[in-house]
Design a protein that fits this description.
This protein has a 4-stranded mixed beta sheet with strand order 2-1-4-3. It is built from 3 helices and 4 strands; from the N terminus they run E-H-H-E-E-E-H. By secondary structure, the protein is an alpha+beta fold. The longest helix has 8 residues. Strand 3 and strand 4 form a beta hairpin.
Length: 104
């Protein structure tokens, strides 16, 4: 499933500047556990070309544990001993003031 992936977008400068405004919330738009932005010049031969000259994509399976609540694969799953199956984002949503989203 898509939440088991980590996506890297290799972008030209203008697209990189635009997508950078979304920050960490890009993963929600891409329905993935992780999404990162990188310069197009850093794209390797394993990247997938798109219909745009200024965008290439790399998709990999996440090596991180899956959160039992949100199903995102994250390195912080189990860091809170009170909730060994949850990521810190879900712990904040369950016990704290909740996650603050700006864009999505």
């Amino acid at each position: 499933g898509s939440l088991g992936t980590e996506i890297s977008l290799y972008c030209g400068k203008e697209l990189l500047d635009t997508l950078s405004k979304v920050d960490d919330e890009l993963r929600f738009a891409l329905i993935s556990s992780s999404a990162s932005l990188k310069a197009l010049s850093d794209a390797g031969s394993d990247c997938i070309a798109t219909g745009r000259e200024d965008l290439k994509v790399s998709v990999a399976a996440s090596a991180h544990e899956k959160c039992a609540r949100c199903w995102h694969h994250r390195e912080d799953v189990g860091q809170d001993p009170r909730h060994p199956e949850l990521c810190t984002r879900c712990v904040e949503n369950v016990e704290g003031e909740g996650e603050k989203r700006v864009h999505i």
